[in-house]
Amino acid sequence: MASSVNPTVRRRRLGQELRKLRELKGMTAEEMAERLLVSQSKISRLENGRRSISQRDVRDLCSVYGVEDHRIVDSLMQMAKESRQQGWWHAFGDIPYSVYIGLETDAASLRVYEASLVPGLLQTPNYASAVTEGSWPEATAADVERRVQVRMRRQERITDPENPMRLWAVIDESALRRIVGSGSIMREQMEHLVEFSLQPHITVQVLPYSVGAHPGMYGKFSILEFHDPQDASTVYLEGITSDLYLEKPNDVQAYSVMYEHLRMQALNAEDSRRFILQIAEDWAGAGEG
User: Which CDD domains does the UniProt record give (predicted)?
Assistant: First the structure.
């Protein structure tokens, strides 16, 4: 379950407030950087929530922006303090996509398109282990175990009995056909997918090969939405060495439209379940190969 104080979300919200103050002052990020003798990239990272900020930095920024209401300053400084706390994922060490985990932990809904793999929130432990071993050849057994533990912990967002996250997953047929680990692992994963898809807050749709060319051919992406209207919807694009987070309304709208096209082209939920069960039978016949 999401913690009461999510440092990632606090950084993000604090950055949004600081950006508003700068814009009200009529200053550009470049002008602000020159005023504080820091790089423009630092100002940008502070405002997009990708970098933690100290209470002293908040105080200095408020001074430059001419904020005289002590209640506003105190509120922003409290957010800065909370943004430096550690989320549950920090206990697992250096996780490269920790910013995403922080957003996912607080998200109200998630729309995900996957082209090559079963989405992480729907993976079995065995499948997650085989995926990690295959995609990270240099990983030690301890590395693999840690990644699997994080993935299983993330799944608490969709298994929370009181406040489950709404999940909509469109999965390309290739993700179901590619053998990961063994035939038995794949069969177990297919049955797991069907079981999850029966939950009222989870929708799984398969995009079959027969669709041909489709809008998702450029790669996987996720769209996160939040309960608080202050938290802008975010498109997440995962990379090998770095990730991309898109929050501009036009970007989010473009990906939302793309997702609607994928949903319309994919099999409906019931037909997708039957399709996945047929693939599970195929994997059962494949044995361990």
Answer: HTH_XRE
Residue 115 Cα to chain centre, angstroms: 16
Reading the block at residue 123, the tokens are 């993976």
For helices 98-106 and 7-25, give the axis angle rounded to 10 degrees: 90
Long-range contacts of 72-77 (CB under 8 A, 24+ apart): 76/14, 76/17, 76/18
Give the H/E segment covering residue 112. Answer: strand 107-114
SS (H, E, C) 231-254: CCCEEEECCCCCCEEECCHHHHHH
Give pTM, 2 decimals. Answer: 0.79
Q: How many CB atoms lie within 10 A of CB 71?
A: 8
Q: Determine contact, residues 24/16, Cβ cutoff 8 Å.
A: no
Cβ atoms of residues 116 and 220 within 8 Å: yes
* Token pair 């606090």: residue: 10
Mean pLDDT per 10-residue interval, the chain, length 289 residues: 61 82 88 82 79 81 86 84 72 75 89 96 97 92 93 93 94 96 96 97 97 93 89 87 85 96 97 97 77
Backbone φ, ψ for residue 163 (5° rounding): -145, 65
